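Hi support team,

I'm filing this because I wasn't sure whether my run with pyridoxal-5'-phosphate finished correctly. The job status page said complete, but I'd like someone to confirm that the output block is well-formed before I use it downstream. Pasting the exact inputs I used:
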Amino acid sequence: MLKLCFYTEDVEERCREMLFLYICSMSIKKYIEKKIVKHLPALARAVQRSMDDDKKIKLILGEMRGNPEMVDSLFPYRDKYTVNTKMPEKSSSKEEVMKQIREMHAIESAPWKSGKISGSFYHGDQDHYDFLNEAFSYYSQVNSIQRDVCPSLTKYEGEIIAMTLDIFNGAAVNKRNPEQKASGSLTTGGTDSIYQSVYSHREWGVDKKGITQPEIIIPISAHPAFFKSAHYLNLKVVTAKIDANYQADVNDMESKITANTVMIVGSAGNYGHGIIDPIEKLSDIAVKHNVGLHVDGCLGGFILAWAEPLGIKCPVFDFRLPGVTAISADTHKYGYSLKGTSTLLFSSEELRRYQYYGQVDWPGGIYISTGFNGSKSGGLFAATWAAMVHYGKEGYMKRAKQIFEVNTRLKNVVCSIPELKLFGDSLFITAIGSDAFKIYHVNDYLKTKGWRMNGQQHPDGFHFCITGPQVTNPNIVEEFEKDIKAAVEYAKVQKGDPKSAAMYGGAGKEIDPSMYLPMLTAYTDVTQSTYPF
Ligand SMILES: Cc1ncc(COP(=O)(O)O)c(C=O)c1O
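And here is everything the job wrote out:
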């Protein structure tokens, strides 16, 4: 019967049969447990593997529609407010519109204000957001391209870049070579910064080295933005290993450099564990082989920059190293600006110019932009400038010190629990794993207590990225200690697979890995749809 089911042509029919078997297994439990249930995960995987992607997506969408928990999590407001599946015929008053926005905002702000959410909400004080929103409001309608009508945007953009170059020691470039001057751009986010950098390095390779098949060497721990950029820009991706300390393996990277390599990548710190790659050594090999080196400080840049001035041990990762040709650092993370901003710094003006796009013969007039984006909101320029000038070195250092301290206390809690282990020793991320049990059980338990950690894989683990809301909750460490100790006790007695395992491919047995991409595709489709989807 199992075989028959497996070879049936119609996929949906197979799934119905499996469901039937599963229901049977519930009623004649003992017999079935031995004979069938044991085989169900394998069977399910085999069925999943044999489908084509479109069928998988269709099946998953069906599953999602029939799963009330999933529907609730994606469309929690479907019964409360009108679902606009078409342009409304009539206007609504501003008050009606704002009422909905205010209500949804209030519901969704409560969890992160508790400090139990990892990362995401970097500043966390409504006061600060109000300040940024006011700055934004004066320029929200301004297009950053049109400097003739708003020359103040040049002040904002130029100063944001200058201030960021200052903290990453851009002046060191000019000291080494008086002909060369570090430069930068204001972009719309980390991925945008990385994309522009990959593009500029590719064009540099084409222009200066005549490379026609450009390659990029990316440690597996680097952010997907590098892989995505290489995919869009048609660079060959060469992955590099990480070593026992979860850092980029420099020897592996060097061994993979070819005449086609345009750039290599290091993180300061990486998303998974907040670890800084051996940037100094990467700089040496970048110089030796005359390739670009992008340091990804999208997440860590605006916090790690303050370690050294605070007297905290932190390796150099900026333009003081001669091989560093680009640094990305997100103002919308620890720069405490609004979402939609990041900086990309280059070790020369020449490298920045590769990302410019100009067209002089267009009937619409002469066109030039700094990068891939066209219009950008002047509001984001003003808000970012406001955040940076408001904080200054003094303000950023004060907040960084508080974040480093909370993180140290959280790491101490983890180290005091024998069943847990820390990944690396990041200054701002507590990254947790275990050799004693499946670590996702701990994550599952923490979830029930309102914590939202970020799951990791290869190796299994999760991290707690420390930001403002953890600093403003004075009891956060004690609350974490109590809940994680209970979570460990819970994990110790669990026999099956953790719920969150399936998300990361860590320990889930029922889901075939071939289902992951279709699942993500289906989910992404749904996040852009209306209810009922
Ligand atoms: C290390 C690192 N690089 C790049 C990015 C991409 O940034 P964004 O999501 O702003 O595009 C992130 C985002 O978390 C990151 O952590």
